[in-house]
């Protein structure tokens, strides 16, 4: 006998409720996951339609109690069916529940609200509102004060956002409404995220010879019976985007649809504008700032065939297009393509899977491909194409590596090396722009003792606290705060202080060193408000400042033609992370950063400050030599059996009871060791995760390494069953993670 798990309703809340039905014998050979079948449902046995989300030979009730379903209704595969099949694949591949996978894949169908609530400020101006907020704070009406302050920043505040992010409730708001200070407005929402009519259409420019060559190679591949995914390895500014656009144009002309994934951070107004300029109302753009309703509307438009191109971050991958032709993943190496929630999927892998299921193509692009993608391209699993020169042969910037140890020896204790200072001076003299970046946020980074070396840590999270401008030490995981300390809590030494390398610190040094320079700072603190990110970028693009200081977010994907100097202030910050990918991350970050310089007509320069000038990731970033980096890094991965040289599966567990967690993970560790013995499985741990404790929840991890993915899949399945049947794991939250 065969049984089918069936969901009746694909609205979001109902996805974890499936019902088992018997598969009529004659249909056993035809049925597969995703199909629509008609079932007798409820007490009256009314006929309903349901989706098959799982098939098995094991009945969940006494077999006589399980009703058979009637028939298969699918005539041709609907979009939902394909997405449900994709979810089933993700469940298997990443070890999540089917409900989690379905929620990731199916467009959220919430009750469509044609009206959405918003606040508006009423009858008082900003100054008054702020004064009132101050009073309310004194009177301990903090929530009300918070709302007023938020409204000063954003006069139309979204109702759901306010209740989520500010913790507002109706009771908090009511008095303000009664006093006539705040008014809840019922707005008809016109849910198109950008008014595309206002953007003039542009023609695509014709391709250069090199770009044309890449286009031809791709088209040739697409003629084949089983086309492979394509990787475009193109240096920054070589025109990968131009190639994407031609491909999109062609696929759309064939009546098919295109999904373009772009890292969230690059989804700027500039990017969006370009897409609307080229494709007008054929295109829609998703980003995380859209409300659920807006997102759902865009998915609905896609399903109805009103748009042909969806641009967005990771989640746009699940756009319910009915005739998908192409998936493009720009900046394929970006970490944001990996989901941190179960199913912990990677967009690249899911894209390849979805494309295979639906007969679509995949094109990946990057100046610094991930080791995963590049090794597949080298082995021939992907087609490798290259753009080795910048558009119009603009030269790559001249790069200097500055050894900070030498600076110290020469008596220079400033954050700015002599080299970087000189280069900045030159830019200011010539009225050119510079970017200085730091892989860190906050004022002065962590605080440590110069006598014993201890860093001040959050008592709940086991991570270093960050010193902020107001003198407080803050935990960036849970928000814990404590006042500054005068003495080291461990040894009593008075020599305690910050690691002087925050973005605010750099800003201050710049003000002192170059009093006339106009400096803009962009980091987490200055971009918390909606729109401020865009404001800073456009102000810098309009040359309203000479120097832009920021965290790594400023070096990703922006095009500032007047920037001729990029400085990496402390390149080592990312090199010291406890992660086997830290050299790769450092190389990528530095290469992308260097690529920001000299994008216009004037040649560029880059300065990398570091304590490890001899490290290969710094050396190869300086020479922009990807292949050399790849060889070094791959030999390290081979030596250590790290991906992509081997496959790695992490078992992540979290629990409030440390004892219980440790016990459970010890058992699990021994279990996987035992069943993995015959495969010579490599088991590491259990150990505390790199952040061992977040918000009083403990985290432990076991890593499994093996040459064959199949072996890890098998172990994962067995471990899942083991966890399910042993009550010791009930209070633990366990996830699997492929890397
Ligand atoms: P990438 O995506 O590889 O970083 P872009 O596609 O953004 O590169 O191109 C870099 C710059 O060169 C852009 O300003 C772009 O307009 C210009 N460019 C590239 N190729 C062409 C072309 N064929 N015609 C006109 N401009 C081009
Ligand atoms: Zn100390
Ligand atoms: Zn904390």
UniProtKB/TrEMBL annotation:
Record domain Helicase ATP-binding: where: 221-387
Residues reported in the UniProt entry to bind Zn(2+) 2: 458, 461, 475, 478
Keyword Metal-binding: yes
Cofactor, how bound (note): Binds 2 zinc ions per subunit.
SMART domains: DEXDc (SM00487), HELICc (SM00490)
Enzyme class: isomerase
InterPro entries (alphabetical): DEAD/DEAH_box_helicase_dom (IPR011545), Helicase_ATP-bd (IPR014001), Helicase_C-like (IPR001650), P-loop_NTPase (IPR027417), PriA (IPR005259), PriA_3primeBD (IPR041222), PriA_3primeBD_sf (IPR042115), PriA_CRR (IPR040498)
Catalytic activity: Couples ATP hydrolysis with the unwinding of duplex DNA by translocating in the 3'-5' direction; ATP + H2O = ADP + phosphate + H(+)
A Pfam short name: DEAD
Cofactor(s) required, per the database record: Zn(2+)
Binding site for Zn(2+) 1: 449, 452, 488, 491
Enzyme Commission number: 5.6.2.4
Function: Initiates the restart of stalled replication forks, which reloads the replicative helicase on sites other than the origin of replication. Recognizes and binds to abandoned replication forks and remodels them to uncover a helicase loading site. Promotes assembly of the primosome at these replication forks.
Family indicated by similarity: Belongs to the helicase family. PriA subfamily.
Quaternary state and interactors: Component of the replication restart primosome.
Official protein name in the record: Replication restart protein PriA
